[in-house]
Amino acid sequence: MNTPNKNILYISYDGMTDPLGQSQVIPYLAGLSDNGYFITILSFEKIEVYPKNADLISSILKKKNINWVPLFYTKKPPVLSTLWDAFQMISKATELHHMNNFSVIHCRSYISALAGLSMKRKFGTKFIFDMRGFWADERVDGNIWKLSNPLFKTIYTFFKKKEKEFLENADRVITLTYAAEKEIHTWKNISNNPVPISVIPCCVDMAKFSQEKVDPMLKLQLKKDLGLENADYVLAYLGSLGTWYMLDEMLDFFKVLSSKKQKAKLLFVTNNPLEGIMAAVAKRGIDKNAVIVTQASFEKVPTYLSLSDASIFFIKPAYSKKGSSPIKQGELMSMGIPVVCNSNVGDTEWIVRKYQSGIVVDELNDSSYEKAATELLNSKFDTAHIIKGAAEYFSLDVGVTEYLSVYEKLLN
Hints:
By secondary structure, the protein is α/β, with parallel strands linked by helices.
């Protein structure tokens, strides 16, 4: 019996030196490497971040016997820079294939899939379209590509055509949500529907995001540094704000919550500028002393989260968000922290209801906030049950097992 060729090329247009690469790419690939796969990562790094983190990432990957080939992401001029990056990606992938004879090209999202499809057609390699979300539609829903602009309309049309090709030619498609799988299987223009899909959400390293691993002395010091008191009720928001996360609506919810709960505090753990957040706070007449804005390195995030009684995230409920799996949901559940979230975003609502891991706000208005805030304050959440839910659905071990299953099916 022939031994399967376990040489894998993983292509990512996101950098390994970015937080996303560190939390949502490397841990999976490390697990696959531990199971006997020989992995080469081809990634696009941001020039401003790469020098700070390159040595650390290189060291982590070497220990896991993963080969890393970083290229540099170009920003300008728009559109042309992306075309140049795609050309570089295909050229480098081809060069690496001649050296390594890859059996599988695993592509994270749409730009990378351009290379994966090209490789499949040229060399007959297996092609995994790890689509993450509905990228082209996200660009439109997020007002990044305005379809009234003929250039963006052309780009959108191009990528929707490519999306169809990726789905029809991939040996396996990976989505983040069951909502996305269900949606794709309704698309009449896909010739081979139902396409073979595996659902693997954004997973979390539960050994890292654990209340038990938080140093009590560090937690106490951090609480003091942030000016928090034992009597404070802390609602936390983790991550960046902007295109998708709805700052105004989250502040409106907090205003209602603070009218019901004395000493309520809203803690933002974010890299977004303080000024923009505090301007929105002032506009709503919220006491500025009730809002804390701070930054944290990825390593320290669990300690910051451990200070919270609950967390919040409202995401713009657009069509493309059927495909979204918020990383923070798994991280919060892993620490047993209940969430307040809105409906109509991926599998988020289904997960919250299944594991009783928080409160779902059905409509973004004051009457819904009143109801949700009352429910939040009166609920007795079972921390152990929430953590068990994280282990079942978001655990990195489960994610690695799912990816192993995909690789084994393709190679055997």
